[in-house]
Design brief:
Blueprint lengths: L3 H15 L6 H8 L3 H8 L5 H6 L6 H17 L3 E2 H19 L12 H8 L3 E6 L4 H5 L3 H15 L25 E6 L7
Antiparallel strand pairs: 1-3, 2-3
Helix pairs in contact: 1-2, 5-6
C-alpha cells in the first residue's frame, strides 16, 4: 500500500505536470521517483488506493471517526472498551444505517478480521492487554477487609446522596474487579493511561 508520503508525491507530480513544469508524465514520475503506471492511472482519473478502499469498507469514514472518538473518550474516562465491545458498536452503527436506508434482508456485520484492519487505518488507537490483578493483592482481599471497605464506602456515599447505579465496578487501573485474568482492550494511543 502506498504511504502517505508517496500519495503526496503523486499529487505533487500531477500538479507540476499539469502546470507544465514537466514535458511528460514520464519525466514527472522519474523526478519524483514514483511508478509511471501509478501517475498515468491517477492522471486518467483513477482514485488512489486509500480513497478507493473507503468505498469498500463497511463503516463510512464518518462512522469510523465517531467510533475512534468514542474509544478516545472511554480511554480518557478510564473505561477502555474490549475488542468485542468495539465490534458490537460497529455492528450497531451498521444496523442503524441499514434501518435508516430501509434496506431488506439482514444488516451487514463486521467480519472476523475487521478490527485488525481498523487498527491499520487508525494509528491513534491500539489493542493492549490490561494487567491482571496482582496475585498478592488478590490474596489479601479477605472477607473481613472487603466488608470493612464496603462499610467505609457506604459511609462516604450516604451523605452525598450517591445512588448505587452511579457506582462503577472499576479500580484505579481500569481493570474490572470481578475479573482476575488479563483482558485485551482498545485504547487511544495519545491518551496517557496506566495500562
Amino acid at each position: 500500500m502506498a504511504s502517505i508520503g508517496q500519495r503526496d508525491d503523486v499529487d505533487t507530480a500531477l500538479s507540476e505536470w499539469r502546470k507544465g513544469q514537466f514535458q511528460s508524465l514520464r519525466q514527472a514520475a522519474q523526478w519524483h521517483d514514483i511508478p509511471l503506471s501509478t501517475l498515468t492511472d491517477r492522471a486518467r482519473g483513477s482514485a488512489n488506493r486509500a480513497t478507493y478502499n473507503q468505498t469498500r469498507q463497511k463503516l463510512t469514514v464518518g462512522e469510523e471517526e465517531t467510533l475512534v472518538a468514542y474509544i478516545r473518550h472511554q480511554t480518557q474516562a478510564g473505561y477502555p472498551l474490549s475488542i468485542e465491545a468495539v465490534q458490537q458498536i460497529a455492528n450497531v452503527l451498521l444496523r442503524r444505517r441499514w434501518e435508516a436506508q430501509g434496506a431488506n434482508g439482514q444488516p451487514k456485520t463486521v467480519g472476523q478480521h475487521w478490527i485488525e484492519r481498523f487498527y491499520k487505518r487508525h494509528n491513534d488507537i491500539k489493542a493492549v492487554k490490561l494487567r491482571a490483578m496482582d496475585t498478592l493483592r488478590a490474596r489479601s482481599s479477605t472477607y473481613n477487609r472487603l466488608l470493612e471497605w464496603f462499610q467505609i464506602a457506604r459511609e462516604a456515599l450516604s451523605p452525598n446522596d450517591i445512588r448505587a447505579y452511579n457506582i462503577y465496578n472499576m479500580d484505579e487501573t481500569g481493570v474490572i474487579l470481578g475479573h482476575i485474568r488479563t483482558a485485551k482492550c482498545v485504547v487511544a494511543t495519545d491518551v496517557p493511561t496506566p495500562y
